[in-house]
Amino acid sequence: MILRDKPGLMQLLFAVRGSVLPRILPRILGLSALSALVLWIDANVMRLPHTNAAPFAVFGIALSLFLGFRNNAAYDRWWEGRRLWGQLVADLRSLSREVDLFVAEPDRRAQILRLALGFLHLHRINLRKEADTSPAIRWAGDDFSESPHAPCAALDALTAAVAIGADDGFARKALAERTASIALAQAGCERIATTPLPYVYSLLVFRTTYLYCLLLPFALIDGAGWLTPIFVGIVAYVFFGLAEVTEELSHPFGETVNSLPLDAICRTVERTLAPKLGQEPPPPLQPVDYYLS
Amino acid sequence: MILRDKPGLMQLLFAVRGSVLPRILPRILGLSALSALVLWIDANVMRLPHTNAAPFAVFGIALSLFLGFRNNAAYDRWWEGRRLWGQLVADLRSLSREVDLFVAEPDRRAQILRLALGFLHLHRINLRKEADTSPAIRWAGDDFSESPHAPCAALDALTAAVAIGADDGFARKALAERTASIALAQAGCERIATTPLPYVYSLLVFRTTYLYCLLLPFALIDGAGWLTPIFVGIVAYVFFGLAEVTEELSHPFGETVNSLPLDAICRTVERTLAPKLGQEPPPPLQPVDYYLS
Amino acid sequence: MILRDKPGLMQLLFAVRGSVLPRILPRILGLSALSALVLWIDANVMRLPHTNAAPFAVFGIALSLFLGFRNNAAYDRWWEGRRLWGQLVADLRSLSREVDLFVAEPDRRAQILRLALGFLHLHRINLRKEADTSPAIRWAGDDFSESPHAPCAALDALTAAVAIGADDGFARKALAERTASIALAQAGCERIATTPLPYVYSLLVFRTTYLYCLLLPFALIDGAGWLTPIFVGIVAYVFFGLAEVTEELSHPFGETVNSLPLDAICRTVERTLAPKLGQEPPPPLQPVDYYLS
Amino acid sequence: MILRDKPGLMQLLFAVRGSVLPRILPRILGLSALSALVLWIDANVMRLPHTNAAPFAVFGIALSLFLGFRNNAAYDRWWEGRRLWGQLVADLRSLSREVDLFVAEPDRRAQILRLALGFLHLHRINLRKEADTSPAIRWAGDDFSESPHAPCAALDALTAAVAIGADDGFARKALAERTASIALAQAGCERIATTPLPYVYSLLVFRTTYLYCLLLPFALIDGAGWLTPIFVGIVAYVFFGLAEVTEELSHPFGETVNSLPLDAICRTVERTLAPKLGQEPPPPLQPVDYYLS
Amino acid sequence: MILRDKPGLMQLLFAVRGSVLPRILPRILGLSALSALVLWIDANVMRLPHTNAAPFAVFGIALSLFLGFRNNAAYDRWWEGRRLWGQLVADLRSLSREVDLFVAEPDRRAQILRLALGFLHLHRINLRKEADTSPAIRWAGDDFSESPHAPCAALDALTAAVAIGADDGFARKALAERTASIALAQAGCERIATTPLPYVYSLLVFRTTYLYCLLLPFALIDGAGWLTPIFVGIVAYVFFGLAEVTEELSHPFGETVNSLPLDAICRTVERTLAPKLGQEPPPPLQPVDYYLS
């Protein structure tokens, strides 16, 4: 995630980090060049058909509709991902309080918290398809890699610790409810990670955007003249820019510059729980070059 | 569900799997041909009335409104269906932990989990109106086909097992809450499956789309000339394409290429629960030709 | 509710059941005739002022905004009504399982379920303002017509049965929670039934739509000529059609062809609970002439 | 709240009750007169600049965006207010059942219900800033006016009654949960009542609407001629009408004709609870001149 | 937060407090001046290319789409922040009732309430990054500044007091649930405070808005003539105005004039809880110059 203030004039002109411009520049230039070619042919080789703005008005509205929908859906996925991780933060903090209330033995309390922190890292690693499980091992003493689903195995181990440490009904009920709440947030994240936006929208959106930009010069020749390539470039920037942003945000657990700062969230939880495990709280994660991982 | 990366240039041009193009191509070509006919008559037989863009601007906005609404509603159904299945995944995992905490006898625990897996398959089979109940029989030993509602009967049997295995109030309360949560997600899926989008919208949308595409040539003759059939074809592609996508997504439990991967979700749950039943976890389901069933 | 497949070409042309066309046809024809009159006066009597498309563009956008908003709000009411009834289905199924777990005496169990089914029918009858309470009497033995609010009285009787049949705290807590969940869904339905969309929107929408269609001919004379009445008719169809659909869907518990199939939902619950009461499950309700009541 | 059927032709022409027209008529006429003045100056004194529709198209879209957003936000507040009161209805009904289950002594039960009804009236009085607390005194015997927050004091008294009447853990837990649910709905209503829509939107919307209507004549002179004042009037009607509706609905607990019928909702609850207090249920509140308070 | 009635004519003309106009005026004037320069060059130096409205229609729709989306997302953040604080208000009130029911010793009750009030102030201070922790010290006797996360430490201390004061399972369960609900609302606020809207949207929106306003003169020269700078100024006002409002509302816990009145909300809670601690309730916070902090 990029953490920066509202962009000033310099950033608006030159900011590249966090921008999608570099990735879509080839397409923008290509389409502008094509439109310049159309102009040149129209002026020097043969007169091409000129259309007026009517068909493009509706076309553009439909395209806006597609992009608007996709953008909303993608942002909702991103924000729901963030909300689920916020739920996990709250759940782990509440778990640490509930073991204080309901589990008598200090060692068992510590074991439960360690397994919870291990789960959190394994969940992050699972979502991001990372390979380094050392943070999980550091807390939980195990990365549960022999299990078919490591985060679930960590929660199973946590439940086993609860079964030993909590011997009355209230304790078991309270901690089972907490674990179920964690499991629900976990399944929500996995749902977002494994179910992309329907592929058919991608096809429809990109095909329509290309068609629009390819046909646009025929409508602009009369109205914009030699400004046509500039307008085509701007329209391509706006539409492809939004399409790219959408693509990124719809995968909130990836490692692009716009994805969620899962490392920092895990660190936040570690800072809250470390004192209860008798450890020095690690420093909060700081953005590097405005980027918080 | 189609699982593919962002479409590249080749896919944009040629991807057919997951695209709605093949299904709507006849309509697109038909409407293009009609508009070509209009042009030919206008040029060679008799001058037809030419309209300007004004009436189409509003018409197009209204049409976008219809399609946008229907698209949002359909996507919400699709995503709610996915969310409900995510809830089921979390509930079954939590159930497996709660039987560990609250049910003393191992055989009874296994019975409850087997019935839960049987329920999950029967629920999937019921939603998709499939006939093969063997996965349910494999886990639960029964397909409850003599009952008026097989998934409910599986949950009833699960409750009966809980009544035997859980003898204190906490255990019964915890497992009754979990079962109620499962039943709520189940009823939510059945709601989506049995209540389609209001039929009146389909009539309104399709009638309006046809009217729009049939009248469009009269507005484009002046502005687009012999490009008219191309524009009519594109507009028809955009509008009918969205209408078709909408139709598919509004039935998320069907077996079209864009419906939800219920088989894969059931497999995910089986993988998590199998070790607790002393079984080798089955391999995760892989997409075949980009399609995950 | 109309249950039909995606409309084919024949249905698009001729479907009347479920369509709003018959009801708005007089208005459409009236407005078309008026616009024809305007044309005739303009051509033969005196030249009327001709306007261009500019004022109508903004007007049309504002109108789309109104209609789009009202349509979303109405559909949300319809879908929330359906969701609440889905909640009731799940609650009654869960209630039937919880009495198995928490109520020892079989007669008391049956009494609770019978009162729950009686409540469901009384709730439906109350929402639809029907007079025939025989289904409620059949299950609950009473229609509670002497009470100021029959469905609430049925739930009160259910609670009284719970007070006798459930003698430990867990049982009372579990069944009180279930009853409260039912009461919440009930109050939600009553909220939708007694609180229509603000009347001021109806005035604003219908007044604006009429103004729009009455002034439209002045903008179309130049652009559409003798096609004007056709365009006015289509625009009237689109706008009044959406306004009518909205009106219907915003009353989801009515008995129009687009309202919710409450009879069928009640039957679904009866089918699930009948075996527990030792009765033959009634057959599921089938649509008659595509209409499910 | 206005309770009327779908407006017929007469109502469309003449309905004033519930309409915002009377309040915005001066502005509409003023702006129309100004535009007539512009026309007169342009024709007789000096030629004013004529603009085409291009700048107004974007301007109008942006204005629609503002108004659409504000309208959605206002309606959401109105509907959330209604939902919270529906929650209170369900909570009070459930409370009346839970005291039957969990509180042994009949006098204590009645006391709790009386305090709950007193709370409901005090909450309504607090939201509407009314002075007459007699309904609260009639039920609860006190209006808690010596307390800094009367509705909270009523709930505190209710809790004190629960502390005496409920002596086992289940009873206290159940009634504490119910009270917390009531308190949450109460705080939700107070949130809506004390936090208006951000003031900056009002400035932006009204300033933009005025600018739009003041500049519109310059764009319409060419296109609409002497119909200009009519169009300006209609556009002003549409935009100011929506702005006024929005203003009203965003204060759902006020006493305008479009605010929520809190008196009627309180009466509904009284009708359900009265029999349990041995009282004749009062008649339901009827609309007076279509208005339900 | 600004608390004012609907703006009257004078306020519309001159209101500055709460308005974003002062902040964006330089940009508006700069862009107007630039467009005047374009006009002057076009008239006196060399004829510049004139474009028609077609490219701007689509451009404007896309821009509206961006701004509309961002505005909705920002308002949702603002309103969710307010909802979470409303939840905190309800939770603290319910906590005060639950300690009455579940904690026997009056000193312990007071300690729990004092820690809760301390938490509330620390949470506010943490969100606003303020330095003055005296209100927290006044209630809780400590500002927990030695802890890595002060609000969490306050809740930990509260849990420790519960562990001493509540000795049966029901009490611990009830108070643990309340604390978890508080922690969830707290984590929700922290989520909003630490996760801004994706930076990439800011770049896209501001870059597109500047491009639009810079190119607009070329489209307006023909249509608006010497009114062009006025139109450019208005369009810049509308678009930059909305962008600024959005920026402010997306940080609901800041100290701008449009951010949430956290001081006043804390005071509301203090007023409700003070009598239970034997203190005189402080007066409600009043807006100063229409501003409620």
UniProtKB/TrEMBL annotation, chains A, B, C, D, E:
Keyword presence, Membrane: yes
Transmembrane regions: 20-41, 53-73, 199-220, 226-243
Main subcellular localisation: membrane
Pfam families in UniProt: Bestrophin_2
InterPro entries (UniProt xref): YneE/VCCN1/2-like (IPR044669)
Subcellular localization: Cell membrane
Keywords: Cell membrane, Ion transport, Membrane, Transmembrane, Transmembrane helix, Transport
Membrane topology reported for the UniProt record: Multi-pass membrane protein
Domain of life according to the entry: Bacteria
Family assignment from sequence similarity: Belongs to the anion channel-forming bestrophin (TC 1.A.46) family.
Protein name as it appears in the record: Membrane protein
Organism: Phaeobacter inhibens
